[in-house]
Each structure stands twice: as structure tokens, then as C-alpha cells.
């Protein structure tokens, strides 16, 4: 049974599961992961489904090498899925396509218009009746301010770094103090999901906007090419633990991630 967004909106529940939802939903024999990174998810998928044929695309040379080492039996190509010439043999080849924490990278490199191109290209290589498994950060559906207080000084210092080092970016809090913050919930995720990063990772990831679109916007784009079967919002356990350790939330914070399972029409 296919869902409308109003159906899904009433079922969006917290879920800490993400990798198991992907590894347990791999239909058919030919599996493609777009943007496999170092191969951590690809390895988990292979462990859970060792008889399937795994393929992947990764554009970063260092991550590509790590993925090849981690899953040597997989057919991994070093290329950019948005820019590459899709092999004729790939058209309609794959039974399941995984897109996990990749869409926001494509948005960063190519801009928002590339997201629809991404799903269009996925539809070309996914067979009729095949499954798309999508996971990424998500923006709240409605914009509003949230507030919280700090338990530890590390957060105060990081917030000052966030304000000073990224002053030119559009992801700044409206106002700050040493112990309390009011922040737009669209921008809160950029700080709240990354403040514990250090060094180069801090500088690199703080220049990316967390999440691509809201759940509504993601649904609207995906349903152009696929039928949405399942859609869930969740906040990973490790982020929940970090928040409980360092923050006092005055109200609930919107979930940070989205999982979508969709199929291509027969």
C-alpha cells in the first residue's frame, strides 16, 4: 500500500534504528550504494547478506581505497554519481539502491537543484519494482525558535567558535549568552549535531548545512519518481546521549534524521 504525505505525517515516530532498517530491506540480488564513503554501511550490508552482488560509487579517493579494503568482493567504482556517464549495463540493473548520508553532500557540491537530478538518475538504474532506501539529516517541517541551557563549559566555548568562525554563513543563532541560547530550529541542528567535533572535522562539517530538506520536501521530491512505502524521523542514540550529557532542553528538539523506503513503479 502506497502512502500519501498526510498518512506519513501521522506516523512519524522516533526510531533509533537506521543501519538495521537498511540492511534488512535489501531486496533482490543486485545492490548499489551511492556514496559509500569508507564502506562501513556497505560492510554491514554485506555481512547481513553475503550472497548478494554489491556495487558502490564513491568519488573521494581515500574513502574509495578504504571501502575497497573493507569490502573487497564488492564492485566499487571511484566516480561522482551526479557527473558520471551511467553505463548502459546499469540501466534498470539494480534491485535495491542505498542513499545514506549522501544527499546533503551532493547539495553542498552542486546546489539544491541537483537533488532532483539525483533521484532522476537513481530511477534510471533501479529496476521497475526495485527499492530505494534513503537516509539523511532532515530539517523540521515548520520553522520556530527553540531554547536550551548548557551543562558544561565545552558547549559555551564551542558556541562562541560557532558564532565567530562561521559568522558569514546562514547558520547562526539569533542570540546567545554564556548559559542559555535561543535558536531557530532550522539552524539548531547544525550546531547541536556537530558541536562535539574537533579539528579539521569541525571546520569541514560546520560549513555544511545539516540536512537537505524537511520531511515534506523530501517526500515531494522522492514521490516524483517513486512510491513511498515507509517514512520515519529519528534521532540516533549517540546524539541523544551527547545532548543528555551536555544540555538541558527546555523543550523537545525536532528529530535530526529521516529514513525513507520507496519503490519504483512496475
Question: How does this model look, in words?
Answer:
The chain has 266 residues and is α/β, with parallel strands linked by helices. The protein folds into two domains: 5-138 and 212-236 and 254-263, Vaccinia Virus protein VP39 (Rossmann fold, 3-Layer(aba) Sandwich), CATH 3.40.50; 145-205. The chain is 37% helix and 24% strand. The chain is built from eleven helices and eleven strands. The strands form two sheets. A seven-stranded mixed sheet has the order 3-2-1-4-5-11-9, with helices on both faces. The protein is globular and about 55 Å long. The two termini are 14 Å apart.
Pick out its properties.
4-stranded antiparallel sheet, Rossmann fold, alpha/beta, 11 strands, 266 residues, 7-stranded mixed sheet
CATH fold group of the largest domain: Rossmann fold
Major beta-sheet overview: 7 strands, mixed
- Low-confidence segments: 7-17, 168-174
Helical proportion, percent range: 25-40%
What gyration radius follows from the Cα positions, in whole Å? 19 Å
Look at the structure and give the mean pLDDT: 82
Instruction: Name the beta content range.
Output: 15-25%
Determine the N-to-C terminus distance.
Answer: 14 Å
Order of helices and strands: HHEHEHEEHHEEHEEHHHEHEE
Amino acid at each position: 500500500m502506497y502512502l500519501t504525505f498526510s498518512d506519513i505525517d501521522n506516523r512519524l515516530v522516533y526510531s533509533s534504528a537506521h543501519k538495521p532498517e537498511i540492511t534488512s530491506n535489501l531486496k533482490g540480488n543486485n545492490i548499489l550504494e551511492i556514496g559509500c564513503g569508507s564502506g562501513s554501511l556497505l560492510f554491514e550490508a554485506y555481512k547481513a547478506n553475503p550472497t548478494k552482488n554489491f556495487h558502490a560509487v564513491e568519488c573521494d579517493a581515500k574513502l574509495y581505497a578504504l571501502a575497497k579494503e573493507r569490502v573487497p568482493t564488492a564492485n566499487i567504482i571511484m566516480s561522482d554519481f551526479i557527473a558520471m556517464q551511467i553505463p548502459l549495463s546499469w540501466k534498470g540493473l539494480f534491485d535495491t539502491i542505498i542513499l545514506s548520508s549522501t544527499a546533503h553532500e551532493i547539495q553542498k557540491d552542486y546546489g539544491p537543484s541537483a537533488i532532483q537530478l539525483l533521484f532522476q538518475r537513481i530511477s534510471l538504474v533501479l529496476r521497475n519494482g526495485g527499492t530505494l532506501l534513503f537516509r539523511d539529516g532532515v530539517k523540521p517541517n515548520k520553522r520556530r525558535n527553540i531554547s536550551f541551557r548548557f551543562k558544561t563549559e565545552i558547549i559555551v566555548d564551542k558556541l562562541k567558535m560557532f558564532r565567530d568562525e562561521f559568522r558569514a554563513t546562514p547558520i547562526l543563532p539569533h542570540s546567545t549568552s554564556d548559559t542559555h541560547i535561543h535558536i531557530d530550529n532550522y539552524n539548531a541542528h547544525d550546531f547541536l549535531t556537530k558541536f562535539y567535533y574537533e579539528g579539521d572535522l569541525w571546520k569541514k562539517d560546520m560549513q555544511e548545512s545539516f540536512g537537505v530538506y524537511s520531511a515534506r520536501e523530501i517526500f515531494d521530491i522522492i514521490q516524483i519518481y517513486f512510491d513511498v512505502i515507509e517514512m520515519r524521523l529519528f534521532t540516533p542514540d549517540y546524539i541523544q546521549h551527547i545532548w543528555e550529557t551536555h544540555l538541558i532542553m527546555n523543550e523537545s528538539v525536532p528529530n535530526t534524521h529521516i529514513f525513507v523506503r520507496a519503490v519504483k513503479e512496475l
